[in-house]
Design a protein that fits this description.
Length: 243
């Protein structure tokens, strides 16, 4: 077999092995969506949603800033005070042993909110998390980034800017609900005092959904490696015939 063919096959096999290891460590895939219509088309059913919104930006009373929902029930709501331009840490967790959902938000470790003891999903049928961000008031934007799934960094972000479309959507797919998981990341809100947001005009949601099954066939890493092996055998046979 010519040296350049052997080199090309070795490179392809190494690349495939690298992709296989990367997919195994992350365990999930991320996809940026372009619109709510695209997200709705992806959604077969909804399990729950965690939400953060500007509300009235008061940690003690008034309109709520944090919430957890099932399709038909308000699981919990709470107050939280945001700071423009200051990153906030969040964690969303799921425990299949009791179907418990945990949602926590912390800013400078000075305040946190946790619903672990009060929110249990009755039918946790979901395989995808949709991260949706929204910013409608002039000079406002919101970003969910620095994402980690079970401690592994995952690519992508959900970001909305009022100067653009005002909407951001990121899908995290391939979630196995028979195993516990946690999603962590950072949230940053920015706004202008000249056009203050209220309610959900500056907000994010993390929706747990069951995605619509796809009919497209995606080759698995194992199939890719088998194809490369077949390519090597074919090249070897051609070489023997040439000899």
């Amino acid at each position: 077999m010519p040296r350049r063919t052997i080199t090309a096959l070795a490179t392809a096999l190494t690349t495939a092995a690298t992709l296989t290891a990367a997919q195994a460590s992350a365990g999930v895939a991320t996809t940026t969506l372009g619109s709510d219509a695209e997200a709705n088309a992806l959604t077969a059913s909804k399990a729950f949603a965690a939400e953060g919104r500007f509300g009235n930006n008061n940690a003690n009373n008034g309109d709520w800033e944090l919430g957890l929902w099932t399709p038909n029930t308000v699981a919990d709501q709470s107050n939280f005070a945001w700071t423009s331009g200051s990153p906030v840490n969040f964690i969303l967790g799921f425990n299949p042993s009791n179907n418990m959902v945990t949602f926590s938000v912390t800013e400078f470790t000075s305040q946190s909110w946790n619903t672990e003891t009060v929110f249990s999903v009755e039918e946790p049928d979901f395989d995808t998390l949709l991260l949706r961000t929204r910013a409608t008031k002039n000079g406002s934007d919101i970003t969910l980034d620095n994402l980690f799934f079970n401690g592994q960094s995952i690519p992508g972000q959900s970001a909305a800017d009022s100067d653009d479309t005002g909407l951001g959507l990121l899908a995290i797919s391939g979630i196995d609900t028979t195993e516990a998981f946690f999603l962590t990341g950072q949230l940053t809100m920015n706004w202008s005092t000249q056009d203050m947001p209220r309610g959900s005009h500056l907000a994010f949601q993390i929706k747990a959904i069951e995605a619509v099954p796809t009919t497209s066939v995606v080759p698995t890493p194992t199939a890719a490696l088998a194809g490369l092996s077949a390519l090597g055998l074919l090249a070897a046979r051609r070489r023997r015939r040439e000899d």
